[in-house]
Amino acid sequence: MTIREKMIEARPAPGLSIGPLAWLRANLFSGPVNSVFTLLGLYLLYVLLTPTIQWAFINADWIGTSRDDCSREGACWVFVNARLTQFIYGLYPRDELWRVNLVFASFAVLIAWLAIPRLPFKRWIAVVTLLVFPVVAYVLLYGGYFGLRLVETHRWGGLMLTLILAVVGMVAALPIGILLALGRRSEMPIVKSFSVVFIEFWRGVPLITILFMASVMLPLFLPTGVSVDRLVRALIGITLFQSAYMAEVIRGGLQAIPRGQEEAAAALGMGYWQRMGLIVLPQALKMMIPGIVNTFISLFKDTTLVMIIGLFDLLGIVQAALSDSRWLGFALEGYVFAAFMFWIFCFSMSRYSQYLEKKLHTGHKK
Amino acid sequence: MLKNNNLLLLASAGALAFTASSFAQASTLDDTRDRGAVQCGVSDGLPGFSAPDDEGEWQGLDVDVCRAVAAAVFGDAEAVRYVSLNAVERFTALQSGEADVLSRNTTWTTTRDTTLGLNFTGVTFYDGIGFMIHSEMGIESAKELDGAAICVQSGTTTELNVADYFRANDMAFDPIVFDTSEQTVGGYEAGRCDVLTSDTSQLAALRIQLADPDDSMILPEIISKEPLGPVVRQGDDQWFNIVKWSLFAMLNAEEMGITSDNVDEMLDSEDPDIARLLGQDGNYGEGMGLSADWAYQIIKQVGNYGESFERNVGMGSPLEIERGINALWTEGGIQYAPPIR
Q1: Residue burial B71-96, b: 16+ Cβ < 10 Å; e: rest
Q2: Which of A46, A84, A345, B94 is most buried, judged by most C-beta within 10 A?
Q3: With an 8 Å Cβ cutoff, are A323 and B56 in contact?
């Protein structure tokens, strides 16, 4: 029997069980079939990515002001560059852009304030965001007061219009959706049937049909002399449509809350709105975050449909730019740019929702 | 929480501004004056006819009609409120008063003119089916196309019109039919046919998008009738006259050789026709409720028809469409305006 006086020196793990090589082996080359698939995948990536990168970066033209600056060997980002202001602000007068910038910037600050957990006065900022900001934004964007030049909505467009449609749609659809969801679960027959009919009607009609009705039929029904701004028509259409979807998402959340929660609240002497507002909804909404964000993202992308009623959202203004005879034939660049912008916004929304879920996580997550 | 949401609903409702504008039961002109701008329905994007330029200003042949009307009414060609319309909603927008003039590559047909409560005021562009060929074919007229392979989009009136044309001229052709416009162009580029056919204005836009535009040319013949022109609501003859004569003024100006550059010198012209047009002799704007210099303002700010044509769709533009039948009647075309007297 031997007694070791010293501990055996710790030896490094076998070369192939740690480090990048081991990772490669475990995840990419763990058997002949997987190895073949890995190589096939790499080959496909090579075949697809090389021309894309060549087109988008290496052979691309970046600097210039007209189509003559494009070599046409790769992408011509000159087009996007020359039109960037228009893609963002639409046909908004160039010397009034500061108004849009101011609205964008203050909105970003307010949202950031609400989103960053450590900052104080959340309640006040929320009130400002929901009550004061819309009025200020409206006055700034539309003008007509305080010596601001009137900028009619037909000059609004681009990313600005997309954001307006999406934000107003989201902000308005959520509370209406909550009310409809509660209404549908209510025991009062009138409230219940109204909610059911509303939800089923708006959910059963395609958004494009609603927009078309709002744009083509509605003006014919209105008395002569009355016309509703087409942006407002689109906003109302989108809000009604989205609130029906939102209602069903929220109803799903409400149904997942055990009945005992509400009964316990009732036993404490809480009234209906207290039970809902303090006990049921906070739990339900938290669970519904993925569903709600899903609806928001789809709403954000659905805003492109307003193109068919002649509003120039981001995609619409890109298409309008494509029909400028000085820039014919740059469709691919335009669409790639539009897709990229949409992706940025949808991806950020998705990341924020994941963060929110983590933060509010209290044991429901699996 | 719920309380907040209710407030939120109110707030967003407040942000949705209802703008009720009153218009015209009696006089479109008065309402236009009150508003301070002509409401003009244009296409949401058609190369050469209406599209926003890099600065976000609308440009095009159709847009120039809007600007001409604004110049006649206000003496300011920029006093236009553009309403971008797609093909479906254009007539509704005009009927409901959202637009007062529709200048949106609209073909003048009996049905549209007689059943929709609308009036066409003239023709800004005689469009129609034309042919684009590979330059190397070395022919100069559609009459020489006997036996050609022709790329055409299926299910369009183009297909029928082309067949009629070839039969009428006792020629044979080989139709290569595609489903979409892109496929048709693709087929032409790939050399599957010698000829691509579509409306002339479209052909010009398609040509620029070819890999090498200089290899293709558009033949001068137009074989079908697609007269495009501005439209107004029926029932307001004064407004109808204003829009109609705004276009006539541009045509007459070209015929008399008045351009935006020389219009100021022409004010002193001895020619009685010119003096009448420019308001130096008599007041021809009065009958329309306009000032005597209505035509002068149009020519000064928008230019004559020829200038507008060249700038937007003609040789001075990337589209390079030949004047063809859109030339003045004095130069072999069919553009003709009644005299001002």
Answers
A1: bbbbbebebbbbbbbbeebbbbbbbb
A2: B94
A3: no
Which residue of A324, A330, A332, A333 to mutate against B (max B Cβ within 10 Å)? Answer: A324
Identify the residue among A127, A315, A325, A332 best suited for mutation to test binding to B, counting B beta carbons within 10 A and taking the highest: A325
Complex ipTM more than 0.95, yes or no: no
**What is the residue extent of each domain of chain B?**
2-126+228-331, 129-224
CA nearest to A243 within chain B: B9
CATH topology of domain B129-224: D-Maltodextrin-Binding Protein; domain 2 (3.40.190)
What is the residue range of A163's domain? Answer: 151-365
What string of pLDDT tens digits covers the 341 residues of chain B? 333 444 333 333 333 333 333 343 558 999 999 989 999 999 888 889 999 988 888 999 999 999 999 999 999 999 999 988 887 788 888 988 889 999 988 889 898 899 999 999 999 999 988 899 988 888 888 888 888 899 888 766 788 888 889 999 999 999 888 887 778 888 888 888 889 998 888 888 888 888 788 888 888 888 888 899 999 999 999 999 999 999 999 999 999 999 999 999 999 998 999 999 999 988 899 999 999 999 999 999 999 999 999 999 999 998 888 888 899 999 999 999 999 98
Residue A173 is assigned to a structural domain of this protein? yes
CATH dotted code for B2-126+228-331? 3.40.190.10
State the DSSP code for A131: I
Q: Is B56 close to A91, i.e. CB distance below 8 A? A: yes
Residue in chain B closest to A140 (alpha carbons) equals: B15
Q: How far apart are CA A323 and CA A318, in angstroms?
A: 9
| pTM to 2 decimal places | 0.82
Chain A CB contacts of B208 below 8 Å: 325, 328-329
User: Does some domain include residue A300?
Assistant: yes
Q: How many domains does chain A have?
A: 1
User: Considering the domain boundaries, does residue A217 fall inside one?
Assistant: yes
Helices (H), chain B: 2-15, 28-35, 61-74, 90-95, 110-115, 157-168, 181-189, 200-208, 237-256, 263-266, 272-277, 294-301, 305-312
